[in-house]
């Protein structure tokens, strides 16, 4: 098998037009991928980035795909197969967030859209490509699922986002165990759970005590290195793991007191504005 899972691989990145998606794409190009496919709902942005990255000599193609629609994912994979082949590496990066009390979420525009983009899209896409990944054991395969620390710890004003990421983590970890149980060890799934990242998606949010806002560069480096090594779960920064441990051992009332009054977890979204 090829030691580096990116070298000579076809890498597919959702939400690939900007932010962390763009940084993953640049890393794939630098690691000598055979080709990189970028999916994004913003056709102009993804086309422009693909043209820019193609100057490196690596073939990079941008596709306009709305990952909230299962039919577009299926059609996108068929188009990708015809153009470049089947992906060896998939980075499920696309995501949205709505910061508000649950009762202010619109059932379709907020609840359904968040679950479709943050969770179902990764499931639908992985279901499309996994049979071919299983069948081809000639090289290592990778799936990187971008979850969130919000999927490990409840937080006010992000109920639907948290639900989508809790679901992502549970699904991702279960598929990882299934692949190992059935002997498909050439495929590694990594789930990345960062706290707030300064991409603009969480504009206005404040990091809890001892929890810095991660730069996109720091976050993507941690996720990328975890994916290369097949690390099952990557948590950043270290306080994410600490919070999980405290929440697990403390009575609910005690944890709520610490989260609200000491660590300031429960007030971290009070001034959230998002991308606007």
From TrEMBL:
SMART domains: PKS_KR
Pfam families: adh_short
Superkingdom of source: Bacteria
Signal sequence residues: none
Assigned keywords, A-Z: Oxidoreductase
Residues annotated as domain Ketoreductase: 9-195
Keyword Oxidoreductase: yes
InterPro entries reported in the protein's UniProt record: KR_dom (IPR057326), NAD(P)-bd_dom_sf (IPR036291), Sc_DH/Rdtase_CS (IPR020904), SDR_fam (IPR002347)
SUPFAM superfamilies given in the database record: NAD(P)-binding Rossmann-fold domains (SSF51735)
A GO MF label: oxidoreductase activity, acting on the CH-OH group of donors, NAD or NADP as acceptor
Family stated for the protein in its record: Belongs to the short-chain dehydrogenases/reductases (SDR) family.
Name assigned to this protein: SDR family NAD(P)-dependent oxidoreductase
Source organism: Microbacterium tenebrionis
Taxonomic lineage from the root: Bacteria, Bacillati, Actinomycetota, Actinomycetes, Micrococcales
């Amino acid at each position: 098998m090829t030691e580096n899972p990116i070298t000579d691989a076809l890498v597919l990145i959702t939400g690939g037009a900007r932010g962390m998606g763009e940084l993953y794409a640049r890393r794939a190009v630098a690691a000598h991928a055979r080709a990189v496919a970028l999916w994004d709902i913003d056709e102009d942005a993804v086309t422009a980035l693909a043209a820019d990255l193609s100057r490196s000599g690596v073939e990079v193609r941008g596709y306009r795909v709305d990952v909230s629609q299962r039919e577009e994912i299926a059609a996108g994979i068929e188009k990708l197969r015809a153009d470049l082949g089947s992906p060896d590496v998939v980075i499920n990066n696309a995501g949205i967030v709505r910061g508000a009390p649950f009762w202010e979420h619109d059932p379709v525009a907020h609840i359904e859209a968040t679950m479709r983009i943050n969770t179902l899209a990764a499931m639908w896409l992985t279901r499309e490509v996994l049979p071919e990944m299983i069948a081809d054991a000639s090289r290592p395969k990778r799936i990187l699922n971008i979850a969130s620390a919000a999927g490990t710890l409840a937080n006010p004003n992000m109920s639907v986002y948290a639900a989508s990421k809790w679901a992502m983590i549970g699904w991702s970890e279960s598929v990882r165990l299934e692949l190992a149980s059935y002997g498909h060890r050439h495929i590694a799934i990594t789930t990345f759970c960062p706290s707030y990242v300064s991409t603009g998606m969480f504009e206005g949010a404040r990091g809890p005590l001892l929890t810095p806002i991660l730069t996109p560069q720091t976050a993507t480096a941690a996720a990328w290195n975890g994916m290369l090594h097949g690390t099952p779960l990557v948590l950043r920064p270290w306080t994410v793991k600490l919070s999980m441990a405290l929440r697990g051992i403390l009575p609910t009332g005690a944890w709520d007191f610490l989260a609200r009054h000491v660590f300031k977890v429960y007030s971290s979204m009070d001034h959230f504005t998002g991308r606007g």
